[in-house]
């Protein structure tokens, strides 16, 4: 997780302002817990040995390989990182 700085709490005790502040804090934490898209794409390769789910076969492409790579990419983006197994 990246270092974060939460926004300052609003003055007063107005419920709408408090809820807006809580929402802003949660969005900040959510953004900090996501890997950068460049880090996700860096884990993919083309024609590396041995074959892996993050390897696109360019010299001998197959529909199954393309489907596997695309499914893995979607799962990685949904999980917010390559080394994660589920959305956070």
What does this protein structure show overall?
- This protein has 88 residues and is mainly α.
- The protein has 3 helices and 2 strands; from the N terminus they run H-H-E-E-H.
- The protein is rod-shaped.
List keywords for this structure.
two-stranded parallel sheet; 2 strands; 88 residues; mainly alpha
Task: Write a short abstract of this structure.
This protein is mostly helical and 88 residues long.
Please count the helical segments.
Answer: 3
Terminal-residue CA separation: 11 Å
Structural class by secondary-structure content: mainly alpha
Spatial strand arrangement across the major sheet: 1-2
SSE topology sketch:
Layout: H1 15-32, H2 37-42, E1 45-46, E2 55-56, H3 63-78
Parallel strand pairs: 1-2
């Amino acid at each position: 997780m990246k270092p974060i700085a939460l926004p300052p709490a609003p003055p007063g005790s107005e419920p709408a302002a408090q809820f807006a502040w809580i929402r802003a804090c949660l969005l900040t934490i959510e953004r900090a817990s996501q890997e950068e898209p460049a880090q996700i794409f860096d884990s993919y390769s083309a024609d590396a040995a041995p074959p892996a789910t993050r390897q696109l076969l360019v010299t001998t492409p197959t529909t199954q390989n393309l489907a596997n790579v695309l499914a893995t990419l979607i799962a990685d983006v949904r999980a917010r990182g390559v080394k994660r197994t589920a959305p956070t």
